Amino acid sequence: MKVGLFIPCYIDAIYPEVGIATLELLEKLGVEVEVPHRQTCCGQPMTNEGDFESARCTEELFVENFKDYEYIVGPAGSCVKQVRVHYDKLEQTPDVRHVRERTYELVEFLHDIIKVKEFPGIEFPYKVALHNSCSSIRGLGIAKPSERPGEPFNKSADLLKMVKGVELVELSRPDECCGFGGTFCVTDEAVSTKMGRDKVSDYVSSGAECVVSPDMSCLMHQQGVARKMGITTLPFVHIAQVLNGGPFKNGKL
């Protein structure tokens, strides 16, 4: 299969190592990957503010960049949710429908599409607190939200359990929002900060040695809150880096 790799703009600008890990991981798994160099923002910041007209140009460019790929894969649930759910304001041409239907967040692509069974040679001997973002849980369905009945499932956890040495710790409120919420953390700073402090305190209470998430935007917020709390020794790592065997050497952070 031929995959177009979607690297969200904030990852490209702030966490390029996450984009590199995603590319390397997919290639290790035998996926043919291309990175369209004209890609920019998916339009989420403007859509979050209700400015659909300003989002339109970036959305149309996204479709133009990725319309010819069998799958589009990105390491960020909120950005993938933007494409799948919020491109409904565009004219629903065959190209738009194709891009919306074929854009996947990295975890769900590995879990549901290529159905990875193992990550040989990868070791991560740490107690891990797993954070799935609200967009990933409630927008993409990578885990069962606690407010809904039914059998529990967690695709991120399924993948991490394939990595030797990983011990997932139990959190008191595992699917609670961390308070980032894109522009919410700016418009409602006090509430956002309190939510972030609650998440970080939960990690500390659980005995976690590392926080892992498919969403680097949530980790950016949580790490900033942790530093303000004086907690500087708790690493925040994207799941692509763990599954790819980094950012550590020989399993050590």
Automatic annotation (TrEMBL):
GO molecular function: oxidoreductase activity
GO CC terms, sorted: cytosol
Domain Cysteine-rich: 3-83, 128-221
UniProt cross-references to Pfam families, sorted A to Z: CCG (PF02754)
Domain of life where this protein originates: Bacteria
Protein name according to UniProt: (Fe-S)-binding protein
Organism field: Candidatus Alistipes avicola
Lineage: Bacteria, Pseudomonadati, Bacteroidota, Bacteroidia, Bacteroidales
